[in-house]
Amino acid sequence: MSEHYDVIVIGGGVAGLSTAGNITEGNVLLLEKDRIRTEEKRYLRFTFMDSVERLGLLDCIIKRYDKISFQTPANRLDVEYNDFEFVLIDLGKLHRKLMKYLTKKQEIKEKRIVTAVKNRDKMIEVKVSHEDTVEKIFTRYLVDASGSSFFTKKIFNLPCPNLVCHCCEAIFSGGYTGDTNTIKFIGPSTQFKFGGWIYPIDKDNYSFGLTNNLNFLNLSLQSLDTKFKQVKYDLGLADKIESGSICDSNMGLIPVGISYPVIFGRICYVGDIVSQATPWMLEGVRPSLDASIMCANAINEALKQQEESLLEKYKEDWNFTYGTVYNATNLTQKWNRTDGEWGNSFKRMMKLAKMSKTHFLRLLKYDKMSEDAEEHLMGLKTKLDE
Length: 386
Ligand SMILES: Cc1cc2nc3c(=O)[nH]c(=O)nc-3n(C[C@H](O)[C@H](O)[C@H](O)COP(=O)(O)OP(=O)(O)OC[C@H]3O[C@@H](n4cnc5c(N)ncnc54)[C@H](O)[C@@H]3O)c2cc1C
Prior knowledge:
This protein has three domains: 172 residues, FAD/NAD(P)-binding domain; 114 residues, D-Amino Acid Oxidase, Chain A, domain 2 (2-Layer Sandwich), CATH 3.30.9.10; 55 residues, no CATH class. Strands 1, 2, 8, 9, 10, 11, 17 and 18 form an eight-stranded mixed β-sheet that branches. The protein is built from ten helices and 18 strands. By secondary structure, the protein is an alpha/beta fold. Helix content is 31%, strand content 29%. Strand 5 and strand 6 form a beta hairpin. The chain is globular. Flavin-adenine dinucleotide binds next to helix 1, strand 3, strand 9, strand 12 and strand 16.
């Protein structure tokens, strides 16, 4: 292993792989503590078709839905879209695809755990442990894409997200009675403490997931099954989950609510570590991919022009694309909400901001909106803040 790199990336998830793949200047080393999860069987719902197209990921699609239903717990708001906006993506395939973009200038080392990072004069010192050895390597710029370990944020005592949602998802085999072309999301409620989603994957399997911000990550598969059985009634999904048994499950954390800074000196943060997931749908992959491109572009310029301050462009680009919408969505950041609160937040937004469905969809995506819609939104925010 060469001792000096232009860029070291910590983490071989979507954010790390995509950032590394988009850095075209200098030499890059990506360090992953486990193995890159190329065989991971996980599905990403709520991914937007136009983004998948834009990012060249059409071959990672497993299924398209012709309807999404976004529902508040007691049905006060039930929004449906019928235009193939949402697709299901295969995460293992996405990891494989991102790896293919890497060239010889972008090395990957697996089973390398970064254990410490220190700011030195002109370089950053990175301590890496591998089997029984520990070595120090040096880099000009560091990208921390270590996800919800919040690795260097903890080292440097920087703000970590204050809201981390716990997600568990089970793949059921057999017995789904819902519409096979609909992906359904139910907002988390104060009353039930859970939100959830349900959608068919293929003719035999469907996914049912739960999210809340309590700690039940260590539940066994059996107690998970019990939890699912109980919550399906609370969420009004009992008729859709009459039978069927769990054949696979995933659990994890999704940090929500942007936690600045996205740049700290010569360190750039991308992906879950800065919790860019959308607060309504917990869509984390698309914002990670978009931010990774912004981050890599800024690093490329900084390397090309030998000018560290150009890293700031990453922050500017992020703000330009997501800033206003993010601020407006802070209106409804509270995760568990009563049905009234859900209804109010969405209805008021749609009504007062005179938002069309297109704009509403953009809000869900954190997409830059037209200026008039932004004006409405920010006006609404000021009104509600007063
Ligand atoms: C159950 C569940 C369901 C989800 N569903 C969806 C969904 O439907 N749609 C969607 O868009 N998003 C979804 N998400 C969120 C999405 O998975 C994440 O937002 C996205 O994968 C973030 O990628 P990342 O690269 O930032 O982090 P990660 O994928 O967590 O990658 C971080 C990597 O860093 C490595 N690492 C950590 N510390 C170190 C270290 N010290 N040294 C070296 N390596 C290190 C880890 O091993 C890991 O591989 C879901 C998440 C969960 C948990």
